[in-house]
Amino acid sequence: MAKYKGEEIDTKPTEAIAENAKRGLDWREKYGRGGTAVGVARARDLSNRTNLSFSTIRRMRSYFARHAVDSEAEGFNSGEEGFPSAGRIAWELWGGNAGESWAKRITKKLDSIDEEKKGRSMNMKIEHRAMGVDASPINEDERRVRIAISSEEPVSRSFGLEVLEHSENAIDMEFISSGRAPLLLDHDQNRVVGVIESVDLDGSARRLRATVRFGKSALAKEAFDDVLDGIRANISVGYSIDKLERSDKDTFVAKSWRPMEASLVSIPADVTVGVGRSEEAPEPVVKEIINPEPTVKKDRKMSEENQIDVAAVETQARQAAQKNAAQIVELGARHNKSDLAQRAISEGRSIEEFRGELLEVVGSQKALEEQNTGLTEKEVKRFSIVRAIHALANPTDRRAQEAAAFEFECSRAAGEQYGKTAQGIMLPAEVLRNWTRDLNSSDDSALFSDDFRGGDFVDVLRNSSSVMQAGARMLGGLSGDVAIPRKNTAAAAGWIATEGGDSSESEMTVGSITMSPKTLGAHTDVTRQLLIQSSLDVENLIRDDLAQAIALAIDLGALAGSGSSGQPTGIKLTSGINTVDFGTAPITVPSYAKVVEMETKVAEDNALLGNLAYILPAAMYGGLKTTEKAAGTAQFVVEPGGTVNGYRTIVSNQASAGDAYFANWSDLLIGMFGGLDLVVDPYTHSKSGTVRVVALQSVDVAVRHAVSFCLGNDGGS
């Protein structure tokens, strides 16, 4: 038994579930198919009738909802050809039909408790809320549902009561009626379950109604089943406001607003009709607030309260705009659409508008999802790099192999996802996203709280690599060859000599650069004594050593890769970059004039913008700290704060002695392909009791615009 918000719930799997899970394990061993590492781990817990966490039970229900379609495939049922199919084996690993019924029953109980608790916390009686989804207009065969998505019911906002005017002149219906507007879960653009097919305005009832069609994905099927069962019965609209007009002291009416999406939610803000604006969604961005002066008699002073109200509204609008911009930037960066995000901000778009645009640009929901093998937070915590390395270093040690069985299963699942066979052990995406941990807390729960992210693999690389610190752009999750567009020449403008004359002709030419995976190998040495430890500190020591080794290798390839023998072409050997000759060799410390010349070369090519910085070897940086800009001035090239001539300066010994780099580093692209493969060499240093761990990562480097870079040296290297 376990307590959920004060109520006792039995979380021990039934005997029938245990029998199904054991059958799945036996089948998997016999036939060599079906299930992933996560499924195997789940089956072991179920067969042992281990008390499960509530989050695990919720994931069980989600699994069955996603994979219900497997039951329609040949070989799922006894007597069919190919029985038991891979899908049937995986189904049994998760507890089979008994597991599905049990998980659904418990999660419904949890949802009921959540609803009750949330209703109490909001001083609402949930049973008094009207249904946002009426069962009568549901077309089960076509998965279509008729809903009302908004009304004129006032909703409390920080600036007062907000009313959405429901008239033809007030509502911009262009996007919501386009047939592309999404139906979401809880306003989460990563959880699309359907599409809004049509919308109409009920002028008499002052409501906006729509017909929505649910998709065929596992998530959509689960959501539609919940609608049929009456579990999800409330609808909320996501929208932006262009014009908000004050009607009285506390009420503001949206005279121009745009609905962007509809969402299934637990509790809507518009509680009187059971539909409306979700309180969990961010407050809308308001582009214009019309705040007329209140009518005041000459012999009566304006109250202090009214004066404060005006200021509060203006402040709220500014804060909302700032919050909106921050959300757009974050969402754009998450999906490698920063340019699109900046354009949306400059055009004054709301976060809801940007989400809709992003969905259109990306083209599919799958593209918005992170790579994932299905590991839970608890399973990520359980994954041990040290344990895996120890097993690889001791292939004949039965105990070591059994101890790392979970890690090997996860590796196989990751390999299937990336379409690669691991040479050693492949690290799952979830493990890479939780590369570092908070070691200052004695409470293990702190390591896996929803709001804590100590830093992922990419973050650690970025902090360790000089080119990434300088501003190089990381492109993650790549597969196969990737073509990156670039402008070869820019269009030119000219004055027209006479009225009605023609402008001078010029054309902008566009080309592309190709990035293809090149295998990078970086290593660190670990003692056997260290590998038998089970400390989180040891885990992080090895992780950080590997990340630093990879970062140094990326730096070396980015700066001076040969372009042959499996290496990328680095900046130094890229055709078309700017160069400055420091003088007769050997010169390891340039003059101030030569430093200025490097900046001038980039400026002359109109490339003096973006993430501008120097990367210098340590010896050159030290020399410039004692090099005066002009004799007798005591003003040195390296300025207080470590800058060179006002630009950021990063010291890296991956830059060859005598080589100075100045660039807009945003034009350097680092492409990461596939997953991280760890290979263990227990033999090279066996006499010293040391194991070599080699990290294999597919990487490529590309210079988008050569003129953004300048290399300075003595010309002899």
Structure overview:
The chain is α/β, with parallel strands linked by helices and 717 residues long. Among the domains are: 2-121, no CATH class; 129-294, no CATH class. It is built from 21 helices and 24 strands. The strands form 5 sheets. Strands 3, 4, 5, 6, 7, 8, 9, 10, 11 and 12 form a 10-stranded mixed sheet that branches. Strands 13, 14, 17, 22 and 23 form a 5-stranded mixed sheet that branches. Strand 9 and strand 10 form a beta hairpin. Helix 1 (15-31) packs antiparallel against helix 4 (86-93) and helix 7 packs antiparallel against helix 8 (338-346). The longest helix has 31 residues, at 304-334. It starts with a strand and ends with a strand.
Break the fold down into its secondary structure elements and pairings.
Layout: E1 2-4, E2 7-9, H1 15-31, H2 37-47, H3 54-66, H4 86-93, H5 96-121, E3 144-150, E4 155-157, E5 160-164, E6 182-185, E7 188-202, E8 207-214, H6 218-228, E9 234-246, E10 251-265, E11 275-276, E12 286-290, H7 304-334, H8 338-346, H9 351-362, H10 365-368, H11 377-382, H12 385-393, H13 398-403, H14 405-418, E13 425-427, H15 429-433, H16 457-464, H17 466-470, E14 473-478, E15 482-489, E16 509-515, E17 518-527, H18 528-531, H19 536-560, E18 578-581, H20 592-604, E19 612-616, H21 618-624, E20 648-651, E21 660-664, E22 668-681, E23 690-703, E24 709-713
Parallel strand pairs: 5-10, 6-10, 9-11, 9-12, 14-22, 18-24, 19-20
Antiparallel strand pairs: 1-2, 3-8, 4-5, 6-7, 7-8, 9-10, 13-22, 15-16, 17-23, 19-21, 21-24, 22-23
